[in-house]
Design a protein that fits this description.
InterPro entries: Lipid/polyisoprenoid-bd_YceI, TTHA0802/YceI-like_sf. By secondary structure, this protein is mainly beta. It is built from one helix and eleven strands; from the N terminus they run E-E-E-E-E-E-H-E-E-E-E-E. The chain has a single domain, classed as Beta Barrel (Lipocalin).
Length: about 180
């Protein structure tokens, strides 16, 4: 298999998360500045980075709190990074990744599952790969311990966070 290094098509690449809020719903937010690199071949490798300050939320006060040391600590840790340590692809398009996620300067192993799709030629004539992934992390393992109690024993935030990443990689168009 030919080895290529592909960059993400950032217009078609997203990273988001969901966390239980007040015990009644899942709060969702996303990042605008997401970049990834995929090395293809028999032993593919994926790495990516998210600019923490690109977080999109609907409230300025909430944004400030999330950028603070109680959550992302963006001033000291401006990026979230992921580096794969193993990628297993199934014949049916299923994919499983093992890798290291670094958030707030803390690196933890994470496993993500999803789908891997390829086309030989997109609208520009270039090969394109799409990878959709889901993973779950415990935010407290990364030092995000802020919480507040609610009446009835619930807390404002759950500890489990669902991560969703959708990335498209495009090879340079043939000359």
């Amino acid at each position: 298999m030919t080895v290529q290094t592909l960059a993400s098509d950032d217009i078609h690449t997203t990273a988001s998360f969901a966390i239980r809020h007040s015990g009644v719903s899942d709060y969702r937010a996303s990042f605008n500045d997401v970049h990834a690199t995929l090395v293809t071949g028999d032993a593919p490798q994926l790495s990516g980075a998210v600019d923490v300050a690109s977080l999109q939320v609907k409230n300025e006060n909430l944004y400030g709190h999330l950028m603070s040391p109680e959550f992302f600590d963006a001033e000291n840790h401006p990026q979230i990074t992921f580096t794969s340590t193993g990628i297993q692809r199934g014949a049916d398009g299923a994919v499983a990744l093992e890798g290291d996620l670094t958030l707030r300067g803390v690196t933890q192993p994470v496993r993500a599952t999803g789908t891997w799709s390829e086309v030989e030629a997109d609208i520009t004539g270039a090969p394109r790969i799409g990878i959709d992934l889901e993973a779950a992390i415990d935010r407290t393992a990364f030092g995000m311990a802020w919480n507040a109690p609610l009446a009835g024993g619930e807390t404002v935030l759950g500890d489990d966070v669902a991560l969703l990443v959708h990335v498209e990689f495009a090879a340079p168009a043939a000359a």
